[in-house]
Design brief:
mainly beta, 9-stranded antiparallel β-sheet, 17 strands
């Protein structure tokens, strides 16, 4: 179900099926977005997304790559498994030198003859963390109290999250401002991109997986202290923020291999569907994501990410795919 945000309309469709390679799409191919497409001579690209693609993409023509009139399948560009560093296609928006988000439109150069098949095409917007208060980490100190690191664990931009102490959640929070492009559109896909740094991991167990939760708020405020530690993740503070009950497990099954460089999450559309039930965030409002281990397994372990305080271009990014 597409998240009905900013005026978009949600609709029902068959359960989405994400692919990783062409062999997962009988008689078709796996597109870089992670969905199957199949030959269709009525589409300028020659391919149309299948019924089990994400809502808003299902049944639409695959957009030709800019300047080529062709599309690129997953086997041409390497793995698109969201739990690897392959991530979404390189046609997504990029962070500008000024730290603002940029937008890649998906106009494939349509003419009047093919306007009927290309009039409703996805738009991809990439939103970076915009300020130091918008990301940070915290965990419960075994001797009592909490550690609160608004500039990462080392205070200089190296963030950790995972399981620490053993059996407890070590959390990170990421706050993103919804873009103006959201007005009148529906979110049909969302992905989180985190870049590892420093030691990459610390005692990360092969059984560990990451969990991603959305804060239950139409406009999440800045986290100002450890009092915000979510009670659903073990926080004992009465002012702890509330989280929506459904979370996204990264990966869906098994453990996560956290790799050097960019790590891209599975689709976060279930989180935005939950936000949409309450009206959804509007352009200019903020969505706050909370990350930790999906389930503590009694073995401490952490992964790293680049915090805004590092002044690096590799800060966390939220990528939204929008449809009219």
């Amino acid at each position: 179900m597409a998240a009905a945000l900013g005026g978009g309309v949600a609709s029902c469709q068959p359960s989405p099926f994400a692919c990783q390679a062409d062999d997962a799409c009988p008689d078709g191919r796996c597109e870089p977005q992670g969905w199957c497409s199949f030959p269709d001579p009525d589409c300028p690209s020659g391919y149309r997304f299948g019924d089990h693609a994400a809502s808003g993409l299902a049944g639409t023509c695959v957009v030709p790559s800019e300047g080529t009139g062709e599309t690129t399948s997953a086997t041409d560009t390497g793995p698109t498994d969201p739990s690897t560093t392959g991530g979404p296609p390189s046609t997504s928006g990029m962070v500008g030198d000024d730290g603002t988000s940029s937008v890649s439109t998906t106009d494939g150069g349509s003419t009047d003859d093919d306007a009927s098949t290309t009039s409703a095409q996805p738009q991809i917007v990439t939103i970076p963390i915009a300020a130091d208060p918008d990301d940070g980490v915290m965990y419960r100190i075994p001797a009592g109290g909490y550690f609160f690191g608004p500039s990462g664990e080392d205070g200089r931009g190296l963030g950790f999250f995972g399981e620490y102490p053993e059996g407890e959640y070590y959390v990170a929070y990421l706050r993103f401002e919804m873009p103006a492009e959201l007005a009148g559109r529906a979110i049909v896909d969302a992905r989180l991109h985190l870049t590892s740094a420093g030691p990459i991991t610390y005692q990360w167990d092969p059984q560990h997986a990451v969990g991603i939760w959305a804060q239950a708020s139409d406009d999440a405020p800045v986290v100002e202290s450890d009092a915000a530690f979510p009670s659903a993740l073990g926080g004992a503070q009465p002012a702890g923020v509330g989280l929506h009950p459904t979370y996204v497990r990264w990966p869906a099954q098994g453990g996560l291999d956290w790799l050097p460089g960019k790590n891209s999450s599975p689709s976060l559309l279930p989180l935005f569907d939950q936000l949409a039930e309450g009206g959804g965030p509007q352009p200019g409002a903020h969505v706050q994501l909370w990350l930790s281990v999906a389930e503590p397994i009694g073995v401490g372990g952490e992964v790293t990410f680049v915090d805004y305080a590092s002044q690096s271009a590799d800060v966390a990014q939220l990528e939204l795919t929008l449809m009219p």
